[in-house]
């Protein structure tokens, strides 16, 4: 995109969108009482919007938020086109949080929306080094698979990653099973079989994850979801992580080295 950092847009009560130059106090800011979706805008439209919408709606049901006023796909696409030049790509963060104020006890079930529009940075093809987090893990919550406004565990995990000069960090669940990476889901391959942690490990129900699982199944390849210890990950031939920006292959994890040859049949899922 053109050289700006982030454009903030907020949906007003009457349904129109306006620039929100200053972030205001709201329940997402004060209590983490909301959700968000990170999406890719390419060729004039949001990619995989239905998958994002369905995940958002599941989260809204858990938080008790009304879906009555949520913007439909066409409205969002038209709005973003006004701010993203033709043939440009963008990273879109769609924030949805509870309206009104109150304290811990909410006063409303209505939802407020904001958009953040940024230049899209694609996932690097290879991340040279990764470690298993020793400081943070993922606990079971009803909202564990959703992208909530409270992402503190991921912030602290990535702080740990930076402190150890790593390119990626891998989080375990509270039982010691592999769960996900610092901002992505994780897969590995051994002997032609693909593995990924199940949602029972408290990982995010990633859109890239869903696309990869569907593609592997459609291609008739063996893919297993489950609860796996660290030893199974470290015995893999290849490890890769995925989110909406693409796939990254991990060259080294905890001193062990892995194949980083591209999975071409999966890379196609993320072409813009």
TrEMBL record:
InterPro entries recorded: Aminotrans_IV, Aminotransferase-like, BCAT-like_C, BCAT-like_N, Class-IV_PLP-Dep_Aminotrnsfr
Keywords, comma-separated and alphabetical: Lyase
Protein's pathway: Amino-acid biosynthesis; L-valine biosynthesis; L-valine from pyruvate: step 4/4; Amino-acid biosynthesis; L-leucine biosynthesis; L-leucine from 3-methyl-2-oxobutanoate: step 4/4; Amino-acid biosynthesis; L-isoleucine biosynthesis; L-isoleucine from 2-oxobutanoate: step 4/4
EC number: 2.6.1.42
GO molecular function annotation: branched-chain-amino-acid transaminase activity; lyase activity
Domain of life: Bacteria
Keyword Lyase recorded: yes
Gene3D superfamilies: 3.30.470.10, D-amino Acid Aminotransferase, subunit A, domain 2
Pfam families, alphabetized: Aminotran_4 (PF01063)
Entry annotated with the keyword Lyase: yes
Family (UniProt): Belongs to the class-IV pyridoxal-phosphate-dependent aminotransferase family.
Protein name, UniProt field: branched-chain-amino-acid transaminase
């Amino acid at each position: 995109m053109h050289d700006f950092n982030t454009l903030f847009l907020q949906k007003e009560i009457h349904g129109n969108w306006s620039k929100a130059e200053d972030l205001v106090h709201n329940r997402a800011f004060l209590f983490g009482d909301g959700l968000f979706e990170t999406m890719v805008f390419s060729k004039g439209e949001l990619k995989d919007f239905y998958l994002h919408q369905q995940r958002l709606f599941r989260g809204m049901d858990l938080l008790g938020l009304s879906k009555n006023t949520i913007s439909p796909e066409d409205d969002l696409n038209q709005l973003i086109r006004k701010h993203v030049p033709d043939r440009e790509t963008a990273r879109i963060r769609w924030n949805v949080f509870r309206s009104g104020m109150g304290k811990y006890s909410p006063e409303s079930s209505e939802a407020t929306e904001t958009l953040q529009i940024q230049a899209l940075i694609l996932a690097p093809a290879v991340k040279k080094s990764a470690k298993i987090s020793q400081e943070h893990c993922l606990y079971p919550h009803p909202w564990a698979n959703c992208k909530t406004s409270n992402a503190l565990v991921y912030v602290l995990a990535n702080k740990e990653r930076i402190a150890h000069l790593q390119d990626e960090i891998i989080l375990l669940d509270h039982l010691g099973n592999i769960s996900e990476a610092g901002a992505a889901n994780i897969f590995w391959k051994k002997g032609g079989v693909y593995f990924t942690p199940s949602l029972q490990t408290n990982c995010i129900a990633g859109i890239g994850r869903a696309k990869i699982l569907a593609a592997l199944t459609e291609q008739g390849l063996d893919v297993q979801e489950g609860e796996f210890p660290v030893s199974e990950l470290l015995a893999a031939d290849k490890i890769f992580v995925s989110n909406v920006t693409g796939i990254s292959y991990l060259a080294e994890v905890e001193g062990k080295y892995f194949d980083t040859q591209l999975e071409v049949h999966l890379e196609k899922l993320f072409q813009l």
